[in-house]
Amino acid sequence: MDQLISSNVRETLEKVSASLGCSPTSAQVASYLDEHDYLRHLRDEFLIPKIADLPCTDLSLVDGSEESIYLIGNSLGLQPKMTRKYVEEELDKWAKMGVHGHISGSRPWAWAEDNLEERMANVVGAKTDEVALMNGLTVNLHLLMLSFYKPTAKRHKILLEDKAFPSDHYAVESQIRLRGFDPQQSMLLLSPRPGEETLRTEDILELIKKEGDAIAVVMFSGVQYYTGQLFDLAAITEAGQRKGCYVGFDCAHAAGNVELKLHDWGVDFACWCSYKYLNSGAGGIAGAFVHEKHDNTIKPALLGWWGHDLKTRFKMNNVLELQPGVKGFRLCNQPVLLVCCLQASLEIFEMTGMQALRRKSLLLTGYLEYLIQHYYSEDPTRPLKTHVHIITPSDPQQRGCQLSLSFSIPIRKVYEQLQKRGVACDMREPSVLRIAPTPLYNTFSDIYRFVETLGSALASH
């Protein structure tokens, strides 16, 4: 597969199709790429829903025994096969030994999450001591901002993208109000240029340079949930810190999707959920990062006993021995069943690495882009044909595995037809489908089948 991936996916596809004696849009190309995919065995680690088991399927249109076309890992990742085993192990332990499960077995409940933090750190490019597994994403964002957002009369603004994920927007707004400031004055929202859908890196950096003396925190997403744009985290971090700002990221759509180097980039703080590309199940335990440079300077504003040093935590003398860095932000013991779910997924990530996953992702997403452009680019000679505009950046370095497809027609009925045919994807009205080919378990044949099924859905519209 390494030899197949070039900076130009079009050249790769044309080279493969020429060797096969077929068109680049042929199913033979997808089959060839799957056969030469050195990560193809990872799909076997997941449970792929059958078409018949999806709630909206019309079995008069499709074969229900086939695997569904699951392209919505940006919303909820698939279940690893080991998840059930690990959860049942802990239920069995609870049944047989009760409270003794806190300190017994292969996954003692009292420190179960500690065993996963090195694996999690490898996924996000951090040191183990810089990562904590705890809570949910927005809870962690609040806990981190309580410590990193220190507004003054002169430096009180928080910079974020204009259409940040709603939870981020609400968290920032409430943090500003909590400190006695007005969100209308303290929320600095950056929008794309008129007529454009994504932010230009130079515009982000220019605004930081211009407004930086008034900005307390730069708080961006790693990958923008709607457009799929991957921000230049290293450049944003450097620009913000040069102006004296703390820089943090919501990596919900980046963790497990793209290569992150939170430590090397010097990011101040970050948080992420684990149920999207990290496949831990709905409401799975979330992650938080605080760079080690803050171990002795940034303290949690809210305290709980799980932030106490494990060696003396159970002496219960109410004299806090706070763990340094992000570990001190823990408040309470973690739900062990959620730890089990995340363990099952992180073990699969250990079978490969983010660099290898990213290489496959570039070709997988590029293949989707190629087929969409081939069949659905706007053609002035055929004005009545439905066309699709990809609002995600065309530069592979500015996107993860998600492509956001904007249709020239209202999307709901097309989306419903896709669902009837066993496609799981995401709709944003009035006209956008978010399609996320996930390299851990999606195949090139999935992409081919999706584009073929999209044609059927549009024909029935």
As an assembly, this protein is single chain
Residues in helix, %: 25-40%
Number of DSSP-assigned strands: 15
Distance between the termini: 38 Å
Order of strands in the sheet with the most strands? Answer: 4-10-9-8-7-5-6
Tell the overall outline: globular
Contiguous runs where pLDDT drops below 50 for at least 5 residues: 1-6
What summary fits the major beta sheet? 7 strands, mixed
Proportion of β residues? Answer: 5-15%
Mean pLDDT: 95
**Helix/strand order:** HHEEEHHEHEHHEHEHEEEHHEEHEEEH
Number of discrete helical segments: 13
**Rg over C-alpha atoms, rounded to the nearest angstrom:** 23 Å
Structural class: alpha/beta
Describe the protein in words:
Its EC number is 3.7.1.3. It is an enzyme of class 3 (hydrolase). The chain has 461 residues and is α/β, with parallel strands linked by helices. The protein has 13 helices and 15 strands. It has helices at residues 9-20, 27-35, 82-97, 117-124, 137-148, 166-178, 183-186, 201-211, 233-242, 336-350, 354-376, 412-420, 444-459, and strands at 46-47, 69-70, 79-80, 131-133, 157-161, 187-190, 215-221, 246-250, 269-272, 287-290, 388-390, 403-407, 423-424, 426-428, 432-435. The strands form 4 sheets. A 7-stranded mixed β-sheet has the order 4-10-9-8-7-5-6, sandwiched between helices. α3 (82-97) runs antiparallel to α10 (336-350) and α11 (354-376) runs parallel beside α13 (444-459). The two termini are 38 Å apart. Residues 1-6 have low confidence and may be disordered.
